[in-house]
Amino acid sequence: MIYILTKHKYFKHAKILLEKIVFKDFLSTRPVLSALVSKDNGDDSDVNALMLSWLVIAYCNSRMTQEAIQVFEHMRVHRLRPELHACTVLLNSLAKDRLTDTVWKLYKKMVGLGVEANIHVYNVLIHACCKSGDAEKAEKVLSEMELKSVFPDLFTYNTLISLYSKKGMHYEALCAQHRMETAGISPDIVTYNSLIYGLCRESRMREASRLFREIKDATPNHVTYTTLIDGFCRVNDLDHALRVREVTETKGLHPGVVTYNTILRKLCGGGRIRDANKLLNEMNGKNIEPDTVTCNTLINAYCKIGDTKSALKVKDKMLDAGLKLDSLTYKALIHGFCKVKDMDSAKEFLFSMLNSGFCPSYCTYYWLVDGYCDQRNEEAVIKLLDEFVTRGLLVDISVYRAITRGLLVQHFTIKLIESVKFLMMVRDYIFKKLIDFRGNFAKEN
Q1: Following CA atoms 276, 281, 283, 286 in sequence, which dihedral angle do they give, to the nearest 10 degrees?
Q2: Whereabouts are the PPR repeats (predicted)?
Q3: Of 85, 162, 170, which is closest to residue 131 (Cα–Cα)?
Q4: What's residue 435's pLDDT?
Q5: Long-range contacts of 128-132, Cβ-Cβ distance < 8 Å, separation of 24 or more
Q6: Minimal CA–CA distance to 153: which of 104, 196, 186, 195?
Q7: What is the DSSP letter of 117?
Q8: Which residues contact 13 (CB under 8 A, 6 or more apart)?
Q9: How far apart are CA 301 and CA 294, in angstroms?
Q10: If 0-12 CB within 10 Å is exposed, 13-18 middle and 19+ buried, where does residue 415 land?
Q11: Mapping DSSP to helix (H, G, I), strand (E, B) and coil, where does residue 187 land?
Q12: Helices 292-304 & 327-339, crossing angle to 10 degrees?
């Protein structure tokens, strides 16, 4: 039916019918694809190519990229040239998914089928370079464009400038801006935002501020002001960051949670907890909901000064708001309780962290061991391994490392024989793992 409708140029009806069955599991299987291009449908390769091109687009729009690739490969095997738009959509889907290697492989196959790249295809390729951070390949694409007389547009230059700025290649970014202006293309706010970001990233705030003042034919947006605020926070110029935030509000652009998090992080880092709480109250007054970053910043700040009571209050509010604790939350709480020598609470948060599926670092284990050693509670250190087993948790090598180091550092309270004992346990643990691996490997082969 789709073939007949397409052949008689009832394209709209053919596409509707195709989209109705696009989610059916059988559609992209080899027998069905072969049926679509079989001799029963005639030898009209143009019609067959058009049908399958629509199928590629439909799959990509439904985020079924692998199915789209399968259809493309089927077309390649049968020497059917896909529509240019279908190639662009497929390449773009792959670039968005950061499958950059597949993007280049597919592009070569596309060229092999005789599909001529246009500005949209080249923009997708440069976007893929930006995703992978490959400035050298982006320049090669640009050279290929010039060779084929395909002229870059605003999107091309913006993507290049963004790539250069993220890579710290500020000179190259400015050269790209000069080239676009020479070509008669005016920079927009996206262009300026990338350039300002590059300068702020390198803490060149004087140049970033000057470029901000030189913005013409474009209106600064949330990204512009947030980038500047973050830049001033990077160079510890909090007063200037706060002034930029005030300017943002006078322009009718109300800062979001990302902007507040940037300032909050700097306030907490400088020990200005009272000012941080004022900022938090301001957020509440403006109905700006704190996110996980906001709460983690406050919890970490409270734990650093040993105020675990306030840290727990923030943690409870975080849960009440429907936010989930992440590895940074647990890490801050464990460190905080170890700091105030509340080792039982620190240990419970460690096990909660493990039960939640997070993997603590060596430092996290060491804080706990070091805390027990400072209390001269050698028995708790020695029993820690047994508690892991009792709770049904895997004993990570980091646990052994932390315990061994803790015992060696605290040699004045614990006999050296205990340290040697744990070193032997580490050895036995590694040998057991190797034997288990060898046994499993033998069974599988």
Answers
A1: -160
A2: 48-82, 118-152, 153-187, 188-218, 221-255, 256-290, 291-325, 326-360
A3: 162
A4: 65
A5: 128/91, 128/94, 128/95, 128/100, 128/103, 128/104, 129/100, 129/163, 130/159, 130/160, 130/162, 130/163, 130/166, 131/95, 131/98, 131/100, 132/98, 132/100
A6: 186
A7: P
A8: 5
A9: 11
A10: exposed
A11: coil
A12: 10
Q: What type of residue is 113?
A: L
The CA distance from 41 to 19, in Å, is: 20
Residue 290: both structure tokens together: 């704190």
Quote the tokens at residue 371: 């805390």
**Residue linked to tokens 């492989």:** 105
d(CA 304, CA 36): 66
User: What does each C-alpha distance from 370 to 338, 411, 415, 422 come to in angstroms?
Assistant: 8, 12, 16, 15
Q: Which two tokens stand for residue 258?
A: 């990302």
**Cβ atoms within 10 Å, residue 187:** 20
Q: Of 420, 340, 331, 415, whose CA–CA distance to 375 is shortest?
A: 340
- The DSSP annotation for 63-83 comes to T-HHHHHHHHHHHHHTTPPPP
Residue 52 and residue 80 in contact, taking contact as beta carbons nearer than 8 Å: yes
pLDDT at position 395 over 80: no
Tokens at 263, concatenated? 């300032």
For the residues 293-321, what does the mean pLDDT come to? 92
* C-alpha distances out from residue 409 to 347, 416, 418, Å: 20, 10, 12
Instruction: Report d(CA 179, CA 412) in Å as an integer.
Output: 69
- DSSP states along 194-217: HHHHHHHHTT-HHHHHHHHHT--S
What size, in residues, is the chain?
445
Q: What is the pTM of this model?
A: 0.73
Average pLDDT of span 379-403: 69
For residue 264, CA distances in Å to 69, 275, 300, 381 come to 46, 9, 12, 37
Identify which of 277, 333, 275 has the alpha carbon closest to the alpha carbon of residue 304. Answer: 333
What Cα–Cα distance (Å) separates residue 355 from each residue in 252, 343, 369, 417?
Answer: 46, 18, 19, 33
pLDDT digits (tens, 9 = 90+) for 413-444: 445 555 555 556 556 655 665 566 566 656 66
Calculate what percentage of the chain has a pLDDT beyond 70: 82
The span from the CA of 268 to the CA of 298, in Å, is 7
Alpha-helix residue ranges (DSSP H) falling in 202-256 = 205-213, 222-234, 238-250
